[in-house]
Design a protein that fits this description.
The protein is of the alpha/beta class and about 260 residues long. The protein is about 45% helix and about 20% strand. The protein has helices at about 45-55, 90-115, 120-140, 150-165, 180-195, 210, 235-245, 245-255, and strands spanning about 5-10, 30, 35-40, 60, 70-75, 85-90, 170-175, 200-205, 215-220, 225-230. Helix 2 runs antiparallel to helix 3 (about 120-140). The mean pLDDT is about 85.
């Protein structure tokens, strides 16, 4: 059961400039359980996800893109407006950096308190330390895996796993960025389990691995339109297959 059945962002003749010039406006698309948005850089994949996330008021960890206040969106729901999460690899990197900074600042404050309260009562020192110690403790207990010491890909997967809830919508913007081949497969496995619990995914990606998710609906976004296609007809996939069949031939032309 798809949480969102269809999407269409509309514009009029008076709507000009960004983002109205992007190819997905006035185009109706029907969605499935897993929906893959592909296209060249600058084609509007991230903006499409941002607009949908804003329309649905989904939770996110980063700052939203500045977009026009009025966007006419027609989103057809299965039952009611879904809850969910918007998640971009760029937001995740900023989030981790913020956690690192917060933890360093809290540790620095504790060191300064040790000096400043050296001759004060234990109670006064404990009161001064409490907020900073709590910050460190909360960061350390956030996730099953320590996000600050794990590899970027492992941290990403741990964070994603912590956010999975049954019957929710997950919008992912280029999730493959921090992930190895093996970690992309791990992400797909998590997605598969979430879908069995009624989740739905909309993903903008360049990854041939994510694009190959079984029975995914693939939408190719160009400067003029957005159209449903299939894996084998994607130009990026055709080029990749040709390269893997004979890499030396590519390098002969390149050099």
């Amino acid at each position: 059961m798809n949480l969102i059945k269809s999407i269409q962002f509309n514009k009029t003749e008076n709507d000009v400039g960004f983002p109205y010039a992007l190819g997905f406006f006035n185009k109706h698309i029907e969605l499935g359980d897993v929906n893959i948005i592909v296209g060249d850089n600058g084609s509007g994949k991230s903006t499409f996800l941002e607009l949908l996330s804003k329309e649905l008021n989904l939770f996110r960890i980063g700052e939203p893109l500045i977009l026009p206040k009025r966007i006419d969106a027609k989103v057809k729901f299965q039952l009611t407006r879904p809850q969910g999460f918007y998640f971009s690899s760029e937001d995740f990197t900023s989030y981790i950096n913020r956690l690192v900074t917060d933890k360093k600042e809290a540790k620095k404050a504790l060191d300064e308190i040790e000096i400043e309260y050296k001759h004060k009562s234990l109670f006064a020192k404990q009161q001064a330390r409490s907020a900073h110690a709590r910050t460190i403790g909360e960061i350390d207990k956030l996730y099953e895996r320590d996000l600050l010491t794990s590899s970027h890909g492992e941290s990403y997967l741990a964070f994603f796993k912590s956010r999975i809830r049954p019957k929710q919508l997950f919008i992912l913007d280029e999730p493959e960025t921090p992930l190895s081949f093996e970690n992309q497969l791990a992400l797909i496995y998590m997605m598969h389990d979430a879908i069995k619990e009624g989740a739905q995914f909309i993903i903008a990606t360049h990854s041939p691995i994510l694009c190959a998710y079984p029975n995914a609906k693939i939408f190719e976004l160009t400067k003029d339109t957005i159209e449903e296609t299939d894996y084998d007809h994607l130009s990026s996939i055709q080029l990749l297959k040709q390269f893997l069949e004979d890499p030396k031939r590519f390098y002969r032309h390149l050099f």
